[in-house]
Amino acid sequence: MANETNTELQEAYFSTLKKFNDGDIVKGRIVEVRPREVIVDIGYKSEGIVLTDEFSADETPIAGEEIDVLIDTLEDDEGRLIISYQKAKRTVGWKKLSDDYKEGDIVDGIVTRRVKGGFMVEVFGTEGFLPASLSVFRNKPENEITRHKFLFQIIKLSLAKQNFILSRKGAVRAERELARGKIWDNLKVGSTVKGRVKSIADFGAFIDLGGVDGLLHIADMSWKKVNHPSEIVAVGDEIEIMILNIDKDARRLSLGMKQLTPDPWDSIDKKFPSGTIIKGRVTNIQNYGVFVELDKGIEGLVHVSEFAWGKSRVNPGEMCAIGDMIEVKVMKVDVRERKISLSIKRLEKDPWESLPENFVPGEKVKGTVVGFIQNAAFVELSEGIESIVYTKDLSWTKRVNRPQEVLKRNHIYEFIILEIDRDNRRVVVGLKQLREDPWPKIIENYPVGLVIDTEVIKITDFGIFVKLEDDLEGLIFEDEISPEEKEKIQPGQIIKSKIIRIDSESRKIGLSAKVEPQAE
Question: CA Rg, the chain, in Å?
Fold first, then answer.
C-alpha cells in the first residue's frame, strides 16, 4: 500500500514539471554561484550547471538573476542536466541577427580578441569576424580595442554557415554620413556656427563644420579689401562664421565672416564727407595708386594722378611704404560701389591757380627734365607745373628719333613756351625755338644741283644719311647710288653728293651719289 502511495506522489510531482527537449532555450534562475560553476534552476527535476568560464569578463552572475540557457542534454549517462549559457547566447543572438538585420546594416559589437588576420567581435552574443583591413585599428593599442564597444557594418551574412563578416570602416563612413545628415538638418540660414579652416584657395577658404564643409568666399571674409584669404585665416584656425546660403541638393554651403560685424559702410558718407582731411595707414601699393585704411574695414584709393600737382608719372612705391601713416583728403565717397577717392596733392594749393607772370607763349623759361616717352620729354618748370617738349621741337635740322639724344634726365635747360592750355593743364615748350629758323639760309646755301663733299653717317636699306654741316643732314636715296658703290661705303667716309631735292616744309634734303666728274 505504501509503495502505491509513493508511486502516485512521484507521478503527481513529475506531472507538475515543465516539458523540455534537447536544444530548447529556456529561462533559468541562478541558485548559487560557486568559484568554477553556476547552479541554475530551469524548473526541471534536477538543477543544471554552467561553468563560470561561459560568462565574459564584464558579466557577473548573481544569485537570483534570470538567464537564458540552452538544454544540451536533459539527462546524460549519469542522469545530469547539461545546459549552456554561451550556446543560448549564440543561438538567440544569431536568430536576432538573421531575423532583424541584413547586409549593410549597422550593429553594436564588442571586440573580444585579436585573431590571425583581424579580430573577433561579439554581436548579440554571437561572434563575427572583423578583417584587419576593415578595422581602422591599425595604430591603436590593444587596451583601446579589446573589450570595447564600437559600431560595425555587416558586409557579409551567411545563413547557411551561420557566420558573418563586419567592417568598422563601413560603420565609420555611415556614422559620418549620419552626422552630416544631422548637421544638414540643423543648419539654418543666418545662424552662427563654429568651424575649423580645412584648406585655403585663392578664392576663399573651406571650413569644416564637424563633417560638413562650407565655402567662406574671399569677398565674405572682411568688409575691407582682401588680396588673399591667408591675410585673414590660416589652416587649422577655429573661427566663428555665419551661414549665408544652404543648397542641400547640391550639398553646398556658403559662409560669411564679415556678416558677424556691422557693415562699416553704413552712413560712411556722413562720417567722411567730401573735403575731410584725415590720417590713414597705407595697406596696399599698386602701380595705379595706394590704398589707405581710414577706419576698420574702410579703405580709400589715392590714384597716381592725385599724388602731386603736375606730375603725371609717379611710382607709388617710391612715395610711401605699407604701414606708413599719411594725410589725405577725401574727394568722393561712393557707398553703392564701396569706393572712396582720396588725394594727397589737394592738401596743397593748386599751382595752376597762380601761374608765374613769365608763363606766357613766347617767353623763355628754365626747366628740369624729369622723364621721357617715345617722342617727347617731360620738363618740370616749377613746383607742380610740368610741361612737355616733343622731339620735333628739339632741333631745326638734326633728325631726332628719341628725346634722350638731345636731353638728359635731371639736367636744367632753357626753353621757349609754345602753348599754354589752362583747361587741360598743359604746357608745351620748345628747344629749337631759342634760335632763328636756319632753313631760309639753308635753301639759299644749298641750291638744287650743288655738288658737295658729305660725311656718311648711317647706312640703311632705303638709303644713306650724310652730314652736310653740323646738325644738318640729308639722305642719298636708294636709287641714287649703285649697289656696288653702296657696298664699298663705310660710316665716316667722305663722298661726293649732289643736291637733287630740298623741302622747306618737311625740312628734308635729298641727294644723289651719281655725280659726274667735273671738268678741270
Answer: 51
